[in-house]
């Protein structure tokens, strides 16, 4: 138990640091084994981190622990092309300066009877992180007005960006009520971190300009639940399903002049269904479908600003932080996950996977989302596990993404073309030991 407490403490130090994820701000999967098959696994438990995907799955894994970490390299760039608008004669562009991210994960499981198992998983989400070296909006507006570097009123090289991440704890209980069927429940506790900088140009359309940007990092706590089912419906086919509730969090009081509904920023509900097919004695095919309901979260789903609103023609409820305040325009997202698991021999397992997500950011909302480019659509993954007799099991997985770009050719920023793009590489490492 001392080891568990130390691991959770490390998670508090690292897990709420800014991290990147790529199904919106969700990870494509949790743990190196899940990442290796494209994040799939609702119907295919591989380790104690299954509680992060389907709490019923801990009935099907052995007592033990899993400890891992994800190293993610993310390249993000953005530009506002205001040439030909007013006096602007150049493209305002930059690349986000922070590229490397680290996030831990942890899972533990113990059977307390033939039918009941308990466990805990610790994992993180994130993805809204940018650190640009220039204030895009301020500089583009200044150039449209005819200002140039060095002129009075031309913005200096200020920072622009957001940091947002979540750390989750999922204590879990699972009941195998039939030899082929289990159900599970995870009460969820979360710690959420948020900060913003470089948004001073939006002060005129904020409900509270003193709580808009440049404040200290804001931490909020939240809670919700996850329920799941796992069943062996045929000797070669298993199926699973999970539903995760909205995670209700406190208001971000340091940024209640930015986030809609006075700083309210809950995490969205989502649900998944999955199937695993035993194709041969050595080969498994795993498929999941996930629906993430971003549209239920007003701070994310409310439309971005219109040109009239940027010019100050705005109602009180549409002000940043207002009851129907300006948001990021996110829509619900569908995610498809496909993976294959091949048992090479008694010690080595090989994995491969593909993850495809629809874009939750419409191109028309690119302007406000250049500070939050969580837009990757396609991921390819490979992985492997090596089980030893004395030292436990070691797993690694590699993820590569295709570059994804959002582009609004006639944005609300006076008709300028706004562009934001991202691509990523990820390496997941884990160690596991059965009790």
Quick structural overview:
By secondary structure, the chain is mainly beta. The chain has seven helices and 17 strands. It is 10% helix and 44% strand.
Give the spatial strand order of the biggest sheet.
Answer: 1-3-4-5-6-7-8-10-11-12-13-14-15-17
Class computed from helices, strands and strand pairing: mainly beta
CATH architecture label: Beta Barrel
Question: Number of folding domains?
Answer: 1
CATH top level assignment? Mainly Beta
Largest sheet: 14 strands, antiparallel, barrel
Oligomer: single chain
User: Which band does the percent of strand residues land in?
Assistant: 35-45%
How many strand units?
17
Say which CATH homologous superfamily is assigned.
Answer: Outer membrane protein transport protein (OMPP1/FadL/TodX)
Distance between the termini: 13 Å
- Catalogue the unreliable spans: 3-19
Radius of gyration: 23 Å
Percentage of residues in helical conformation: under 10%
Q: Which sequence of SSEs, written as H and E, runs from N to C? A: HHEEEEHEEEEEHEEHHEEHEEEE
Q: Which fold name corresponds to the CATH topology?
A: Porin
The coarse overall form would be elongated
- Number of helix segments? 7
State mean pLDDT (0 to 100 scale): 90
């Amino acid at each position: 138990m001392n080891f568990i407490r130390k691991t959770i403490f490390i998670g508090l130090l690292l897990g709420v640091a800014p991290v990147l994820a790529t199904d919106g701000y969700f990870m494509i999967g949790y743990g190196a084994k899940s990442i290796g098959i494209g994040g799939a696994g609702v119907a295919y438990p591989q380790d104690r981190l299954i509680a992060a995907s389907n709490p019923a799955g801990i009935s099907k894994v052995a007592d033990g622990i899993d400890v891992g970490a994800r190293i993610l390299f993310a390249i993000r760039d953005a530009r506002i092309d205001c040439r030909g608008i007013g006096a602007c004669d150049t493209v305002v562009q930059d690349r986000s300066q922070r590229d490397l991210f680290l996030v831990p994960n942890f899972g533990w499981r113990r059977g307390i009877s033939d039918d009941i198992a308990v466990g805990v998983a610790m994992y993180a989400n994130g993805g809204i992180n940018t650190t640009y070296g220039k204030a895009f909006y301020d500089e583009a507006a200044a150039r449209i007005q005819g200002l140039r570097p060095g002129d009075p009123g031309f913005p200096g090289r200020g920072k622009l960006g957001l940091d947002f991440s979540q750390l989750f704890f999922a204590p879990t209980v699972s009941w195998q009520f039939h030899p082929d069927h289990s159900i599970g429940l995870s009460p969820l506790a979360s710690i959420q971190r948020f900060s913003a900088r470089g948004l001073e140009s939006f002060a005129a359309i904020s409900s509270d300009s003193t709580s808009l940007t440049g404040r200290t990092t804001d931490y909020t706590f939240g809670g919700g639940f996850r329920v799941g089912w796992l069943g062996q419906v045929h000797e070669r086919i298993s199926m699973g399903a999970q539903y995760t509730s909205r995670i209700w969090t406190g208001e971000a009081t340091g940024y209640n002049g930015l986030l809609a509904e006075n700083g309210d920023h809950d995490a969205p509900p989502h649900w998944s269904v999955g199937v695993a097919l035993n194709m041969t004695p050595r080969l498994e095919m795993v498929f999941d479908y996930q629906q993430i309901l971003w549209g239920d979260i007003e701070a994310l789903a409310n439309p971005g600003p219109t040109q009239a609103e940027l010019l100050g023609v705005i109602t009180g409820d549409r002000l940043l932080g207002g009851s129907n305040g300006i948001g990021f325009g996110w829509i619900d997202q569908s995610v498809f996950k496909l993976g294959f698991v091949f048992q090479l021999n008694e010690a080595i397992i090989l994995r491969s996977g593909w993850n495809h997500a629809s874009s939750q950011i419409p191109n028309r909302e690119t302007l406000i989302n250049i500070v939050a480019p969580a837009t990757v659509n396609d991921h390819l993954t490979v992985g492997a596990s090596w089980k030893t007799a004395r030292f436990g099991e070691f797993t690694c997985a590699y993820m590569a993404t295709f570059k994804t770009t959002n582009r609004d050719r006639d944005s609300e920023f006076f008709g300028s073309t706004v562009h934001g793009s991202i691509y990523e590489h990820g390496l997941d490492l884990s160690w596991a030991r059965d009790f």
